[in-house]
Design a protein that fits this description.
With 293 residues, the protein is of the alpha+beta class. The chain folds into 2 domains: 174 residues, no CATH class; 79 residues, no CATH class. Helix content is 35%, strand content 10%. It has 13 helices and 6 strands. The strands form 2 sheets. It has a 4-stranded antiparallel beta sheet. A hairpin with a 5-residue loop joins β4 and β5. α11 runs parallel beside α13. The longest helix has 14 residues. It is globular.
Length: 293
């Protein structure tokens, strides 16, 4: 499904950099987010880097929220899949001066803030000799006296040095569900069906990025009754089938319905107590307790 009216930037013929610092850091601090990330560029001569803007979405009429990052990322995946490279993208952006790190570990790019998705693909063009790589990655100058994102993170996942404590990050806790997502985090996800944008909402680097309305098709795909029933194919067309798995979306929709006080969906949630997936049963049980208080 195509992401509508989103600005696209292209940086062609980037020389293939030395990712030795990233390899050292990632081996020292392994994360499940890096499971498929490599520095292998095959027989590519250079790298083409694509950025796609993803301004935040306003919630649906039901009040359901969704991070627009996943729509932009899915669109870029479809665009670059034939020559995609699973490179560490943030070091690439910072190393070539395209953007700069903030205290929340995210890169901000002029005109896009942190509200963008990125993808790299192999190029067989000669590298641009004017593009210079620098592995030194200072914080964005705007972040030096600012800690808005650190304060905004309800789980304390941001130590303020440009890194993220993945074990405490709401987005990571929800995605992996191992270990079990803490009850406090389930409350804190609020109405977000997928993703957490709290640190981005607080970031002054995004102050000029205005929210936009969701496409009607996406809003229909996010109807809670549909998601609780496991009807996720329409949503998968927007965010990708890797994210829009039936059990994953059922578990999350249970939490969102409870956080929105949707007692009209109690019976839909109750049915999930018979799910073969433990995480779904667990989230449904938590939601029922909250709705029945």
């Amino acid at each position: 499904m195509e992401a509508p009216d989103q600005k696209i930037l292209c940086f062609p013929a980037l020389p293939i950099p030395d990712f030795s610092r990233w390899r050292e850091e990632s081996s020292r601090n392994p994360s499940p987010h890096w499971a498929k990330v490599t520095t292998d560029t095959g027989d590519a001569r250079s790298i083409t880097l694509w950025l796609r803007a993803c301004p935040p979405y306003r919630p649906t009429r039901e009040g359901v929220a969704l991070s627009s990052f996943y729509i932009a990322s899915n669109a870029l995946h479809a665009q670059t899949r034939e020559r995609a490279l699973n490179l560490p993208l943030k070091p690439l952006l910072a190393g070539y001066g395209i953007g700069a790190y903030g205290r929340n570990g995210l890169i901000a790019v002029p005109g896009l803030g942190t509200r963008f998705a990125a993808a790299a693909e192999a190029s067989f063009d000669p590298p641009d000799p004017l593009r210079k790589w620098d592995d030194h990655r200072p914080l964005d100058a705007r972040c030096e006296q600012c800690g808005a994102c650190v304060v905004a993170c309800p789980n304390g996942a941001l130590p303020g040095n440009g890194r993220v404590d993945v074990a405490l990050c709401l987005r990571a806790q929800a995605q992996f569900q191992t270990p079990r997502m803490p009850d406090a985090s389930r409350d804190r996800i609020g109405a977000s069906q997928w993703g957490c944008d709290l640190c981005q909402e607080a970031c002054p680097r995004n102050a000029a990025i205005a929210p936009v309305s969701m496409p009607e098709g996406l809003e229909r795909a996010l109807e809670l009754k549909r998601l609780l029933a496991g009807d996720v194919k329409p949503l998968g067309e927007w965010i990708g089938t890797n994210y829009a798995r039936p059990a994953r979306m059922q578990a999350r929709a249970s939490l969102v319905a409870a956080n929105l006080g949707r007692r009209d969906l109690t019976e839909d949630i109750r049915k999930l107590q018979n799910s073969p997936v433990e995480a779904v049963r667990d989230c449904a049980a938590w939601a029922l307790v909250k709705l029945e208080r």
